[in-house]
């Protein structure tokens, strides 16, 4: 199980944390001719070896790296501006499926000497990491169909403030759930609603209200599900 968590952790770091937006744009523009595509896959494979830290798994890690390249290539070849949002989710779903499939097909032939870090610590790190930048990018993809600039026109805010607020609230919800303090989650939702009530009342824009409400529920929902999954696995 700990190996599977390491594989997912490597994917989150490689695909979300350390991949610059400029690389993504370069790949979308040049497709298979983009050097960033091959650099990205190379870094991804290096991360797999670094995080797993056991060269006896080299066939599995190279297989996952090759599948990562194939999936990314398919996405670049078939996605258009109109289907970009859809292909983002297809791409991530295929990556996760490929990791699980490769792991379970290869599991019977594997052995491990790695006992550190512990399974609990690694799973906790993976969950916390998932709730930061990856979920922010996922939510950006979800809301890309709406133009937030039009909804908030004339109402400036701090740069990336919403992103960091979302990260902090998801981490807090996750911590409350794994500590079995569900009442604190309700308090956090209530507190955010109180702070937002004035802005929503002043804006008098139904679309903006719905946008914020959907975003809050999705953000909290993902954090709650992640916390529940962590407790179930433990």
What's the helix-strand series?
A: HHHHHHHHHHH
User: What portion of residues belong to β-strands?
Assistant: under 5%
Uncertain parts: 111-115
Provide the residue-averaged pLDDT: 85
Gross morphology = flat
Judged by helices, strands and strand pairing, the structural class is mainly alpha
Distance between the termini: 11 Å
Count of beta strands: 0
The major beta sheet can be summarized as: none
What is the radius of gyration computed over CA atoms, rounded to a whole number of angstroms? 20 Å
Number of individual domains: 2
Helix content: over 70%
Count of helices?
A: 11
Task: Furnish the topology, listing elements before pairings.
Blueprint: H1 2-17, H2 21-30, H3 35-52, H4 58-78, H5 84-106, H6 119-130, H7 133-142, H8 148-151, H9 161-178, H10 182-203, H11 206-233
């Amino acid at each position: 199980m700990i190996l599977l968590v390491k594989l997912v952790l490597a994917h989150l770091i490689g695909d979300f944390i350390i991949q610059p937006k400029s690389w993504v744009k370069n790949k979308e523009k040049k497709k298979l001719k983009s050097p960033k595509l091959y650099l990205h896959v190379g870094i991804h494979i290096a991360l797999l070896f670094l995080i797993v830290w056991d060269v006896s798994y080299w066939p599995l890690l190279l297989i996952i790296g090759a599948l990562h390249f194939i999936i990314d290539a398919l996405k670049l070849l078939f996605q258009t501006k109109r289907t970009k949002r859809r292909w983002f989710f297809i791409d991530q779903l295929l990556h996760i499926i490929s990791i699980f499939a490769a792991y379970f097909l290869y599991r019977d032939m594997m052995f491990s000497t790695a006992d550190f870090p512990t399974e609990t610590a690694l799973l906790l790190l993976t969950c916390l990491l998932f709730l930061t930048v990856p979920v922010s990018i996922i939510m950006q993809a979800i809301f890309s169909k709406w133009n937030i600039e039009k909804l908030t026109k004339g109402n400036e805010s701090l740069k990336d403030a919403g992103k960091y607020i979302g990260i902090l609230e998801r981490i807090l919800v996750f911590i409350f759930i794994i500590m079995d303090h569900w009442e604190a989650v309700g308090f956090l939702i209530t507190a955010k609603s109180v702070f937002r009530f004035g802005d929503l009342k002043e804006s008098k824009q139904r679309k903006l209200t719905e946008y914020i409400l959907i975003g809050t529920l999705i953000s909290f929902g993902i954090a709650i599900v992640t916390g529940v999954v962590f407790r179930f696995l433990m």
